[in-house]
Design a protein that fits this description.
GO terms for molecular function: cyclic-guanylate-specific phosphodiesterase activity. With 800 residues, this protein is an alpha+beta fold. It is built from 26 helices and 26 strands. It folds into four domains: 67-168, PAS domain (Beta-Lactamase, 2-Layer Sandwich), CATH 3.30.450; 174-364, GAF domain (Beta-Lactamase, 2-Layer Sandwich); 395-536, Alpha-Beta Plaits (2-Layer Sandwich), CATH 3.30.70.270; 547-795, EAL domain (TIM Barrel), CATH 3.20.20.450. The strands form five sheets. An eight-stranded mixed barrel has the order 18-19-21-22-23-24-25-26. A five-stranded antiparallel beta sheet has the order 2-1-5-4-3. A five-stranded antiparallel beta sheet has the order 7-6-10-9-8, sandwiched between helices.
């Protein structure tokens, strides 16, 4: 043992020879250099990765900053711009480099610079704030904007700058001006109707009409001229009112096709339609009178013919101080005024001989000819009177805005005569739901309003709304038919929701549209949240317009399973949207918006092309029996080039037309039924499959169903959701399947999620199903896995 321990003793190192020691030292130096070089390389690699990550982040930030539709800018402590995105530069019509390192207050309107400084002071004190202000564009014109600013804070907590979002308010202001001018036009129309009733002679009537137009409509000049039928074909001015009434003095105005008749008044008489001159300084039709008009500050005009069925009596001319002020809605209202003036003129001339004519004029002025209810003019007058009374007596007032649900569908089915009878019946039923002191009026079309005078609060309005909804649960007898209709009601209260006519009407209208959006046959009180929802809808629309171009939309495919064979025989192409800002957006939100705005046309074309191309690629891969179903919106279906578009896409992709199924809803094919049948027939001739989607949820008849050349119906998921419930869903589904088979149609059930639903449908010989029970909507690359023989065998085992 001692000997072994002796072997383990540490012996002192032997003395190395000088040469060997030097070699070892040299190797150590090289090793240390190698380690140091390795560590430096690793640090450089880490640094490059960090720099790359930072550059990627900065690039993404810069892309968001540069492509944002709203202006963004950053200011330093001296209010100089250090960042300025292209959207902000476009507001000023300058390159963004122009603004960098320059004091931003140079671009603020002088009258708003104090407010701008106060705004910056609050931000540099650490506050977020928003403020409207006026900036100056490149040419010096004012630009109204909304500033939304927040402080830029350094790591040590100091405020080192200001980050600001700038939103152009020009369009918002323009819309307000359009609403204001339209409101004035309504007021002018109402006041002129009163003048028509009170007129004793033509000269007094024309003078009063011109005065009302100028004073209440805020126009510069108005005049009335009567047509002479003689050879000279003159237009003789009989009344004029305004700042420059001398404008017409000495002018020779004709309605003949000569030099003196080529102005707007002569053209309006010859063409028997309004003539708008948006800019007198630029429009060639005003060349003969341009200098005289410019000298008096007249910038635009509209000439309205005074028409009867047989001839044109004269012309009503209206001049404005600004260019481009006559919107389509204002033009329509002023033409209505001209028509009323023409009718009033005829009635005035016949008053001594026909006393009944005056009564008819009064009725036309204040009452709806169809229902006998007060019309818009009387409604506005009574609403103004009611507001004045409510202010004096410290009472409240309620305004109910009603719109019939799906009236167009009913009108198309019953015909216009049947639709008119329904409107009369609705008017009578509404009168029975309110007090005699209240006002029920028809605004036009299927829109009705009710004024509840002198109420104490919401508690008196709600029972009336409920009573109206209850009244609509009973059928309307139209001829020998019982017709069911429903209504959506929006309610605004004075003074809570508005203290003037325009605000109350606008808020009640917004509440009514909110009621429609929430399901119809309900009432909703106005709330500020409704305005916020409108803003949210505008935001969604803005992002949707960018989504398609940015590649944010994509398609998933949901398999359709044949219940007899257990084979996947088709797929439905479903559009999806994943927004980097909004996240995954539900199709229920963006598809109706796309339909409403017209964006559904390019989106629908893209979906159809992509789906056909994808299915053709599956065919080439050996899945030749697979078909694809593509949803077609109403706007797409009714587009005049829809058939040509389908032909083009089929030719481009090489897809067999028999492998394509187009799905339309009942409401789509029920609108303009004869045209719809022609379109469906053209598609059918090409071999394209046609399916009626969401069957049973729309408004159609079995007679129409028999007339449509469709191949299949799709039972909506709603009918499968409660097959064992007390509402007879099972019986309805069974009847649908039997009826479809009797007409030679295939049946596809949507939303199948449970085995019990599959068993029920198989027992009733439903042809195909789709839903989560078999597969969720899949990416294109994931679908072929379901087409393998082992998956088909598995499906057969589950089904049988």
């Amino acid at each position: 043992m001692a000997k072994q321990l002796n072997c383990l003793r540490v012996r002192p190192p032997r003395k190395l020879r000088p040469g060997k020691a030097a070699r070892l030292r040299s190797r150590g130096v090289k090793l240390r250099r190698l380690i140091k070089s390795y560590e430096c390389g690793r640090l450089q690699c880490d640094l490059r990765l960090s720099q790359q990550a930072l550059e990627d982040y900065q690039r993404r930030y810069r892309e968001l900053f540069d492509f944002a539709p709203i202006g963004y800018l950053s200011l330093d402590h001296h209010a100089c711009a250090v960042e300025f995105n292209p959207a902000a530069a476009r507001l000023f019509d300058r390159p963004r480099e122009f603004f960098l390192d320059r004091p931003f207050h140079e671009h603020v309107h002088p009258r708003w610079r104090n407010q701008f400084n106060d705004h910056l002071r609050q931000v540099f004190n650490g506050l977020e704030c928003a403020q409207e202000m006026v900036l100056l564009k490149r040419d010096g014109t004012p630009l109204e904007v909304q500033f939304q600013s927040m402080p830029e804070v350094a790591a040590d907590g100091r405020v080192i700058g200001c980050r600001t979002a700038v939103q152009d308010l020009s369009e918002h202001r323009r819309q307000e001006q359009v609403v204001e001018r339209t409101s004035r036009a309504y007021q002018v129309q109402a006041a002129c109707n009163r003048a028509l009733l009170q007129a004793g002679c033509e000269d007094a009537l024309f003078a009063e009409i011109c005065r009302i137009i100028v004073e209440k409509g805020n126009f510069a000049l108005a005049w009335v001229g009567l047509v002479d039928e003689g050879e000279r074909q003159r237009i003789r001015p009989v009344a004029v009112y305004g700042e420059h009434a001398d404008f017409l003095r000495g002018l020779s105005i004709s309605w003949g096709n000569r030099r003196s008749g080529r102005g707007p008044s002569g053209r309006a008489v010859r063409l028997r339609k309004p003539v708008v001159c948006a800019s007198i300084a630029e429009d060639s039709i005003f060349a003969s009178y341009r200098q005289e008009a410019a000298r008096r500050g007249l910038a635009s005009c509209i000439s309205l013919p005074l028409l009867t069925e047989e001839r044109c009596l004269g012309v009503l001319g209206i001049y404005a101080r600004e260019t481009g002020v006559f919107s389509e809605e204002e033009e329509r209202l002023l033409m209505e005024l001209a028509n009323q003036l023409a009718f009033g003129l005829i009635a005035l001339r016949m008053r001594t001989e026909h006393g009944a004519a005056l009564e008819q004029v009064q009725k036309l002025a204040y009452f709806d000819a169809l229902t006998g209810l007060p019309n818009r003019s009387m409604f506005l007058e009574r609403l103004e009177q009611g507001l004045s009374l409510a202010r004096r007596e410290d009472r409240r007032m309620g305004l109910l805005f009603l719109d019939l649900d799906r009236f167009k569908d009913i009108n198309d089915t019953l015909g216009h005569e049947g639709g008119d009878q329904l409107l009369k019946a609705v008017g009578e039923r509404l009168r029975g739901c309110v007090r005699q002191s209240d006002t029920v009026a028809r605004l036009g079309g299927d829109e009705f309003v009710i004024i509840l005078h002198s109420i104490y609060g919401q508690g008196q309005v709600e029972p009336v709304a409920k009573k109206i909804l209850d009244a609509f649960t009973q059928p309307f007898l139209i001829g020998s038919r019982e017709v069911y209709s429903s209504t959506s009601i929006g309610i605004a209260l004075h003074p809570t929701d508005g203290e003037d006519v325009d605000t109350l009407i606008r808020h009640a209208d917004a509440a009514m549209y909110n009621a429609k959006a929430e399901g119809r046959q309900i009432y909703r009180f106005f709330s500020p949240e409704m305005n916020r929802r409108i803003q949210a809808k505008l935001l969604l629309e803005r992002h949707l317009r960018l989504a398609w171009a940015r590649g944010e939309t994509y398609i998933h495919y949901q398999p359709q399973l044949d219940l007899k064979s257990g084979i996947v025989v088709g797929v439905e192409a479903l559009l999806r949207w994943n927004s980097p800002v909004l996240g995954k957006v539900d199709p229920v939100r963006f598809i109706p918006l796309a339909e409403e705005t017209g964006m559904i046309l390019p989106l629908g074309e893209w979906v159809l092309r992509q789906a056909c191309r994808q299915v053709r690629s599956w065919h080439d891969a050996g899945h030749g029996d697979l078909r694809v179903a593509v949803n077609v919106s109403g706007r797409q279906f009714r587009h005049p080039d829809f058939i040509d578009l389908v032909d083009t896409i089929l030719a481009e992709t090489g897809l067999d037309p028999t492998r394509l199924v187009l799905e339309m809803t009942e409401s789509t094919v029920m609108e303009k039924t004869e045209e719809a049948i022609m379109t469906l027939t053209d598609l059918k001739i090409r071999g394209i499959g046609l399916a009626l989607d969401d069957f049973g949820t729309g408004y159609s008849s079995l007679n129409h169903l028999r007339s449509f050349p469709i191949d299949q119906i799709k039972i909506d998921r709603f009918f499968l959701s409660d097959l064992n419930g007390p509402y007879g869903q099972a019986a309805i589904v069974e009847a649908m399947i039997a009826m479809a088979h009797s007409l030679g149609l295939r049946v596809v059930a949507e939303g199948v999620e449970e085995k019990a639903q599959v068993d029920f449908l198989m027992a009733r010989h439903c042809d195909e199903v789709q839903g989560f029970f078999w597969a969720h909507p899949l990416k294109a690359e994931d679908l072929p896995a379901l087409l393998r023989p082992d998956c088909t065998s598995f499906a057969k085992a589950i089904l049988h």
